[in-house]
Amino acid sequence: MSRETIVIDPVTRIEGHSKITIQLDDAGEVVDAHFHVTQFRGFERITQGRPVNEMPGIMARICGICPVSHMVASAKAVDDILAVEPSPTGADLRRVMNLGQIVQSNALSFFHLSAPDLLFGFDADPAKRNIIGLARENPQLARDGIALRKWGQQIIEWLGGKRIHPMWIVPGGVAQALTPEVRDRILAGVPEAIAAVERAIAWYKTDMLRWEEEASTFGNFRSAFMGLVDRNGNVDHYDGWLRVVDADGKFLADRIDPRNFNDYIGEAVEPWSYLKSTYWKSMGYPDGIYRVGPLARVNVAERMGTPRADEELDKFRWRVGRVAGSSFHYHYARLIDTLHCIEKVEAILRSPDILSQHVRSRAEVNRHEGIGVSEAPRGTLMHHYRVDDDGIVEWANLIIATGHNSMAMNRAVLQVARHHVKGDRLEEAMLNRVEAVIRCYDPCLSCSTHALGNMALRIRLLAPDGAVLHELAR
Amino acid sequence: MTIAGDSDGAAAVATPHAGGGSCGPRLWSADGALIVGYGNTLRSDDGLGWHAAARLADEPRLRGAQVLWQHQLTPELAVDISKASLVVFIDASEADEAGAVSVRRLDSTPGAGSAWSHHVAPEALVALARELWHASPVVFLVSVGAASLGVGDRLSPEVERALPAVVDAVVAIVEEHCHS
Fold first, then answer.
1. A57: in domain
2. Does residue A37 fall inside a structural domain?
3. Which chain B positions have a beta carbon within 8 Å of A436's beta carbon?
4. Burial (0-12, 13-18, 19+ Cβ within 10 Å), A448
5. Tens place of pLDDT for every residue, chain B, 180 residues?
6. Residues in A touching B128 (Cβ below 8 Å)
7. What's the complex ipTM?
8. CB pairs under 8 A between A and B
9. Judged by CB atoms within 8 Å, which residues 26-65 of B form the interface with A?
10. Rounded Cα–Cα distance for residues A208 and A218 (Å)
11. What is the CATH number for B148?
């Protein structure tokens, strides 16, 4: 059977660089689709030979968007190697910074990367369908996105001394105690942050009926979901146990100690991507597909655990079901996740011991292996290290949220392509839908890549012999 | 002068020393001027903006200016831009000859390269500040041709030698603006 291939290269408005290939058969029907990650960074190799105490600082350099998440997971892995437990205040302060990170990253994803599509529609002119257009059409929404970004960034900056790559989260806790001034400054921004995200939720709910077709075709399939939950089964972005539910909400596993994740999760490598694909071992590869991130968090948890977010969770579940299957609902879930993070920051900062000076525990290397797991904006993040007797890193493995979602993204692209791409024509709107389904997952390819370059979009239709039959660019 | 962050950090902010500089007694203030150096300090000459901003933060002729250095330009910077009457961006350039300093006035029309991702183009940020807060600052981009954008935490000799000229160019822009 002869095949033609459509290539979207690179995908725009995601973090990092990738391309999408859509394979067509003789009839112009989509037969396969792949989301390629085309660049390589290799932090797992770079860190070999480094003292383990340096790992949080090094791993934070993986990404300029979510360095805090990598620092949290890395510090927890080093805690494990040191066999040290941060003080309650140290752990809570780590939580606050991680939550601030998630707020600013979620805000970037929803308000700046995806809201233009939602406001103007996927068929709108790209010259209008961007944040400048958003600012003209709905300035309050644009200002709210900026305000949330700024608040989340300020939390990181005020706690860590800088917004990107702060060296504040360290093995055993955090480097400095919280001051009353910083606590009060963060708390002062809570009302505006809550108001901003609640306005966005109200807008989204009013508008979401427009997107019923997209919701039914944007990666709408049965899969498992994974996330961290606390002792009550509620969302926990920092610690707790891994829970995995199937498409009907039935537990595939619960109360898994994250340090045992290797017993349950496998990693597969495909020749067309540098991104490893993880799978649920008992279901095998590639059947063991599962999703992580905001949608998974609301699907696996009993409750969010904060009042306003729980109220919105009830409405979410009333609208889309107890376990939402469509990847389109990542947007809605991301807003509820953001609301919860803001409420949680406030709750932690109002706790009586938050100004305690005991924020760091110290120890030497006591184990040769350590695992740290936390929730990053895009989903569950796992750092796994092995060290020698002197604490020198011998081996490291990272499983990032985008890796967990790799198979799901490929399936989502295939579904959207089958629905919208007919092969005989290249139309920007339908190809943008293919891109947009990827953006639902908010993939952060910086975790495995980093390169300078222009994010222009190029779409190619290739004959089986590689000849370019048709090309679009913007 | 106050500095938030450290020499290795991102998104630091500083207000230069008060007092006269090489121009002699100051008759003008740089209040309302925002200077933003940006780039990746682990990508050799891409860190030009940081190095330049660090020098400008200590520049006595820029008393009153706000100096920021950032890893990337991000949307919330539009808030700072909205409060400024003059904005000077400093960045490395792949298009110019290595070490060559160029000064270009920008308008607020987002260019073709402003596809929205984790970073945004200077023009797009200014456009955002205009749309959301009706801001209309005068905007310049001071750039230096990069010799190397490979992995590394040092500037190339060509770009290092250009740093004094970058400082002078920025001071000249601010001085002219404040006198106008």
1. no
2. yes
3. none
4. buried
5. 222 333 333 445 555 544 333 333 445 567 889 999 999 888 899 999 999 999 999 999 898 899 998 888 888 899 999 999 999 999 999 989 999 999 999 976 654 344 444 467 899 899 999 999 999 999 999 999 999 998 888 999 999 999 999 999 999 999 998 877
6. 131-132, 135, 142
7. 0.78
8. 105
9. 40, 42-43, 46
10. 14
11. 3.40.50.1450
